[in-house]
Amino acid sequence: MRAPFRLQFEQRTETPKRLGILVPVASVFAALIAGALFLLATGHSVGDTYSNMLSDGFLSSTGITDTLGLSTVLICTGIAAAFAFQMNLYNIGGEGQLYVGMIGATWFGLFFGENLPSFIMIPLVLLGGALCGAVWIVIPAWVRARLGTSEIVTTLLLTYVAASLVNHFIYRSGSYFRAPNTMFPQGRQVPDSAMLSPIGDTKMYPTFFIVVLLSLALHWMVRRTEFGYRIQVISDSPRAARYAGISARRTTVQVMLISGALAGLGGATLIIGSFQRLDPGIVTLGYGYAGIVIAALARNNMAAVIVSGILFAGLRSGGDKLQISTDTPIHIGVMLQGAILLFALGGEAFRRYKIRVIRTPNVRAEVTV
Amino acid sequence: MNENIWVLMTGDSVALATTLILAALGALFTERSGVLNLGVEGVLLTSAISSFIAADSSGSVWVGLIIGSLAGALLAGIHAILAVVLRANQIVSGLALVIFGTGLANYLGKPYEGKTISVKLTDLTFGPLSDIPLLGPILFEQDIITYLALTAAVVSSLYLFRTRPGLEVRATGDDPATVDAQGLMVSTIRIRYTLFGGLLMGLGGSWLMLAESAAWHQAATTNGVGWIALALVVFASWRPIRLVIGAVLFGFTLQLPYTLQAENITFIPQAFLQMVPYVATLISLIALSRPGSTNALGAPKSLGIPFVRDER
Amino acid sequence: MSILDNLLLTRDRNVVVDRASVRPEATRLIDEFEIKANGPEHVARKLSGGNAQKVLLARELSGGRTATKLLVVCSPTRGLDVGAIETVRRLLDDARSAGQAILLISEDLDEIMSLADRVLVIYRGAIVHETAGDTASLEKVGAAMAGLTQGGA
User: Fold this and answer.
1) Which of B278, B293, B294, B303 to mutate to test the interface with A (most CBs of A within 10 A)?
2) Which CATH architecture is the domain A63-315 placed in?
3) Which helix (H) or strand (E) holds A84?
4) Model pTM greater than 0.90?
């Protein structure tokens, strides 16, 4: 069998600026079209679904504040993934680091919260979450740096271990994290000093601004500091890095620890904000996995993660509300996330290459005629 | 513990190993051709729900198996287009497939949530052979797909290491430039085995639905088996026979918590038992790693690297 | 990595990398070394072989962190076009005149003859011939390279 045409790829020496914007935007639209086909095929109304998602996710005042509230944790897991990805370290266990960050944040909250004031507790809980997230990636980081063990598989396997830990801490009777004297097992609420109240009448917490500032700070760090320069040299040219005396091993560990800490921080923002307690329900939400998509769509740019994080939060929260308004399965939101990323990846080819379709002369056909 | 537990445990390990073997074999063929498909978990979930719906509406297990397998190949096809044709980052593409596949499966599975299926693959029995104490129930009371999976592993081993097309697959994974110079189409070979890999994964996912759990519980249906399958390929050094041995071992640790719970052995917290397969995989992965290269493990040399002919 | 970032490899970098202060120098070096690039931000990987070679030389010869004590260059002009070869050789010669110690490893006899102050021939792991650059003869060096010396076995 002979293909009637083949594709010729010509590497671009310079990528037109407009493609940098056009490709992500086009992938979102392409995914929406694919989603529409699925909605039609399963007998749901496309117009209603999308208009509801748009208003509940972005346009209405409760919609947009809910979205920004949700985006806080997604931006965290997004920058966690992007930070490691930019050095070709595929930490895809942000999900597990998020769980352990939640456990850590809850522990710090419960343990110190009764005796310390809020202005000490909030930073302490955030740092505690980040610390525990980093702890959860120590083994993958170390074996990756020393033995070259694939961090993809190790970080992911540890996610399942972390999920079991969360369950253990809630369902085991007499657990420190479990609320005493409740019928149904649930987490113990952290003291008031370890929580922030939402802004006004919304589901948005001040942590959103902390996280946005952090993303911008990381963006600056990657571009302007010696540490960022090291990361860039190692990812671009490991040989040049070795020549310049930059230790890839040490930087690998550092970058992975920071990545884990950022995901753990995401867990802490949940405790300080809407969750207020360790909740085993977290393992069904997939905030950590969403971070991978958010990072990939932002092409590992920390500042762009803010935008793609908000976009995904809107898809998610708009999608979640669909169940109530139109009886459309909420999972359309997750499906669209995956589809957007798939299209963005395909679009990436157009950014890097000029692609030409070349017809191959069909020799066999001529012979038969 | 009485003898029955051991029979149950080992027999269930062989059975649980079926999905692992099929999914890991799928990944093995894909990777041997040089393509890394991390989307196994998404492929398993999508094929599981597809087979569920197909079997439920047609009333036939076989229709379910076929539709499930095709769904697996279809999803792998997306990866083939992105990774092979468009030369996208294979890691990200695989992860996107997991997210897309999970969302798609949950979307399609919403009306079937918690429902059980009326048809089920039945265990074959071999008359007197199945009555042999201990060995009988372990070896001679499985369903046809389990036997098929074991046969497939042996055939795959022969195919990969004893035939010319098998050599071509391995060469494509190791040294695509040479394959190209031989006048073979690297991309065609890679697309073909990515699709075939997806088909095998799809069969594994369908089996999970039609023989094992037989109820749809969203992502909990696969519970990370797809990821374990990927680790298993590494564990088996990309060799089908070692893969079977590994799969039985992994299957054993996977079902351990349930068996112990059923037998009321509760002195070990259940959460820790749930961790066992993941920790076991982690430890074996680390133990098999060597500093400097992944090649000591026998990984295909151009795994995950797109083939570009005229690039300097 | 851009040309600018390549230069930074051999320069002092503070905690905050000050690219702005290196940019004028990068522009000057691109000019001086006749590198065909759009500017300091041009990605080095996307340059042609000769121009990439010149970036390397610019990086090493233009001072930086510690002035290189000994520069080891191995076949510095292999695969380059005539113009680039000329530039690279001139740059090496200039560097030598400025007092830079250079060890040139090459199988290109013309290059050795035109650049070297002292010529050493290694055959089967041993130095079999030694001569000053201006007294070196093509025949003798060539013969030594092939192992055809009285002392060599």
Assistant:
1) B278
2) Orthogonal Bundle (1.10)
3) helix A61-85
4) no
